[in-house]
């Protein structure tokens, strides 16, 4: 087993990133592989897992099938479980793998720990209850990135394992009438299966630790667009999402957390003239979607606590980012 130092400094500002000094980074090469990871890896596939031991192996095995015998790809498992269990044995069949043990549940921000451990030119994030498809997904993603040097993120298609459809909420555009089977340039992405150019990740910085779970992709998409990069939706690459309840909080808590997160995101990035409309309509939408079984006042109170603890965090997107959103067919107020 090859061990990588967990104290390596990240190549980006650490303003929003927690330390991973307690992580365990172990490389598990297949017998006969090189003793050290090549510096010219093309893809690092990253999965964060918590409370899903019963299903994460399926996700890992599918990623293993996609990687196959490629020597330009690695897999990284970030273990968010707050226990002493070593899950590195789950990676034994992969040609090159890294196991990151955090020792506590960091939430979605643990994707940053996977990125820090990665060596690939492209970072591909896949949820622990999602199956990556098709088998040539890496080549397809490589082609999309190669066609557009300004492209920072490629969002795959989300396919629900039960219905076989793409849920409205998981479609990475505010215009839900767009065809789900055709690619397009966009300003949103879906977190359960997306790829990012490593150089863009380093330029934009780590994903925010303001959110434990829910809508964190919207926050990061604003930052990506504001930095002058582009995003794309590529449905020829898809993840079959099982929406496994393992490790999740009760539904009401999750929905109220998501509403709080949207308030935070809107406060940070929405132009002031559009802020009241955005917050009011999204709150009404979430309330109606949950048939009145959530309390928006609790979400608003949580947002106000965050705002009090985080003064000076408003950095509204500028005219260039707003123009890009409109050019993609989006509406800035949403």
What does this structure look like?
The protein is of the alpha/beta class and 334 residues long. It folds into two domains: 2-241, Spore Coat Polysaccharide Biosynthesis Protein SpsA, Chain A (Alpha-Beta Complex), CATH 3.90.550.10; 251-327. The protein is built from nine helices and eleven strands. Strands 1, 2, 3, 4, 5, 6, 7, 8, 9, 10 and 11 form an eleven-stranded mixed beta sheet that branches. Strand 3 (43-49), helix 1 (53-67) and strand 4 form a beta-alpha-beta unit. Helix 5 (216-226) packs parallel to helix 6 (251-269). The longest helix has 19 residues, at 251-269. The model is unreliable at 1-37 (pLDDT under 50).
Task: Count helical runs.
Answer: 9
The CATH H-level superfamily of the largest domain is: Spore Coat Polysaccharide Biosynthesis Protein SpsA, Chain A
CATH architecture of the largest domain: Alpha-Beta Complex
The quaternary state of the protein chains shown equals: single chain
- Overall residue-averaged pLDDT value: 89
CA-based gyration radius: 19 Å
CATH class of the largest domain: Alpha Beta
Terminal Cα separation, in Å?
48 Å
What percent strand? 15-25%
The helix content is 25-40%
- Please identify the structural class as seen in this structure: alpha/beta
Overall number of structural domains: 2
Fold-level CATH name of the largest domain? Spore Coat Polysaccharide Biosynthesis Protein SpsA, Chain A
